[in-house]
Amino acid sequence: MLKRVLVANRGEIAARILRACREMNIQTVAVFSEADRNALFTTLASQAVCIGPAAARESYLNQDAILAAACALRCDGIHPGFGFLSENADFARRVCDAQITFVGPSPEVIALLGDKNRARALMREHRLPTVPGSAGIIANVAEAREQAARCGYPVLLKAARGGGGRGMRRADCDAELADAFCAAEAEARSCFGASQLYLEKLIERPRHIEVQILADRHGNIAQLGDRDCTLQRNHQKVLEEAPAQVVNAKSRQAMADAAITAARAVGYENAGTVEFVVDADENYYFIEMNTRIQVEHPVTEMITGINIVREQLRVASGLPLSFTQKDVQLKGHAIECRINAEDPEHGFRPSPGHIDYLHLPSGFGVRVDTVLHPHFEVNPFYDSMIAKIIVHGRTRNEAICRMRRALEETLVSGVTTNIPLHYMLMYHPEFLANHLDTDFLERNLDQLLQPLGSEAVL
Ligand code: ADP
Asked: Counting atoms of ligand 1 from 1, which one is nearest the CA of 133?
């Protein structure tokens, strides 16, 4: 088993990993930027080291500083969490070269799946359904036009190295294609340093459904069921549920089988997520595979009882998974609300500041993943997510009622949050009926920002 793990991340996910290590008697090293000097997550580690100034590129993205800390403190593992360096194949390679275990798949697999265009081609070879579109990278607008004519508008131009919903533009007709191409290319170059684009048919009003998998070095691959992450803004998830309740049992099993096929195709090891978009007729299409722990992993943990981070640490230590596929029993329904310090009424602008009063929900079936405390400073340097509220119920309706009361109990003053938006969602008739698609939030934003009026009844 790994003996000392450095957690190359911050905030709630750093705490999540540090807690798992503690339960497994693994020593830990937290790294932090100057802006996080007093952050609670650093106190959950056996040791903590400052790795640089506030700017992420000088701290949480500073590979030299992180590797130097890991070597100096004789760590035998590095857990990257999500975001930052978690899907950086060069970093994973450097970690391995330093004789340290990277808690994730191999650098080769990260590089392969990080190239979404290559990943799609590979999955096609393995007979996974992929979204109709270009066979490979499209070099210019003329080629994009040809491909769009072939698969039909609307289309989506997507950055091959993209992530976080960036480097993606929609075009509804020929006239929009040149602008969409230039905008996607420019964003891809500035965000990812790689401007290559591919083209997909835009699946209209889809659902986003993904399958969690775990694989070990001994050839065991298990799937932990699916998650519905359809509620998004700017292609970024806002609320997630498990299990997905919209597709029939046959399609769900087909997606789960496809996820296992995808993992096997690349010799996957550790935790991974296979993402699909699903159209109104329940056709599903592979879009990408993420090679890290996901923000939304707790909903899967709630319905399976499996601690995914613990399994990641076991697998990285060379141990087999602690369970087999037949042990995976999905129980009840879970919902996660991502709580962000942002102002939905003003274009979702970030709302950093000093938290002067705080009360977090608890009680039966409620889990809160956060490092917030009274007098916490929400700093402006990083992602605005400050907490995840997760509930579990026997049914989706029970989970919704529980989430309503959990949100009612939550008091955060000093910064503006998206809690009222989540609360309104919990009463929206279309949410209650589970009639959702990835444009739902944008389309209903005005209504969701109104104070609660007539109540929907479950
Ligand atoms: P990223 O890696 O940036 O997260 P993804 O390929 O996972 O990008 O796509 C993010 C989101 O964009 C998806 O969850 C889905 O809502 C939307 N999306 C991606 N591809 C398509 C498509 N072909 N048609 C419709 N929506 C799509």
From this structure: 23
- Same-domain status, 370 and 401: yes
| pLDDT score, position 457 | 47
> Which atom of ligand 1 is nearest to 285's Cα?
23
Other C-beta atoms lying within 10 Å of the C-beta of residue 250: 9
pLDDT band at 273 (very low <50, low <70, confident <90, very high): very high
Pocket of ligand 1 (CB under 6 A): 131, 156, 162-165, 200, 202-203, 206, 208, 232, 235, 275, 277, 287-288, 438
Nearest to 239 by CA among 80, 14, 440, 458: 440
With H, G, I as helix, E, B as strand and everything else as coil, classify residue 194. Answer: coil
- The answer to whether the CB of 345 falls within 8 A of the CB of 420 is no
Residue with tokens 């009622």: 401
Check whether residue 306 and residue 376 sit in a common domain: yes
Ligand 1 mean position, distance from CA 156 (Å): 9
In degrees, to the nearest 5, what angle opens at C-alpha 58 toward C-alphas 53 and 60?
95
> In this predicted model, what pLDDT tens digit does every residue of 324-377 receive, in sequence order?
999 999 999 999 999 999 999 999 999 999 999 999 999 999 999 999 999 999
CA–CA–CA angle 17, 4, 33 (5° rounding): 60
pLDDT digits (tens, 9 = 90+) for 7-27: 999 999 999 999 999 999 999
Q: Which of 113, 116, 277, 290 is the best mutation target for the ligand 1 pocket, counting ligand atoms within 8 Å of the beta carbon and taking the most?
A: 277
* Domain identity same for 163 and 307: no
Q: Just list the catalytic residues.
A: 292
* CATH number of the domain enclosing 32: 3.40.50.20
Task: Report CA(203)–ligand 1 centroid distance (Å).
Answer: 9
User: What pLDDT, on the 0 to 100 scale, is given for residue 453?
Assistant: 54
**Mutation pick for ligand 1 pocket among 235, 274, 443 (CB with most ligand atoms within 8 Å):** 235
* Domain enclosing residue 287, as ranges: 207-448
The residue whose CA is least distant from atom 1 of ligand 1 is 163
Do both 175 and 222 map to the same domain? no
Please report, for the domain that includes residue 145, its CATH number: 3.30.1490.20
Interval between CA 248 and ligand 1 midpoint (Å): 22
> How far away, in angstroms, is 165 Cα from ligand 1 center?
7
pTM more than 0.90: yes
Q: Are residues 383 and 274 both part of a single domain? A: yes
Determine the pLDDT at residue 452.
60
**Same domain for 156 and 83:** no
Structure tokens that stand for 339 in this block: 């709580």
Q: How far is it, in rounded angstroms, from Cα 389 to Cα 239?
A: 10
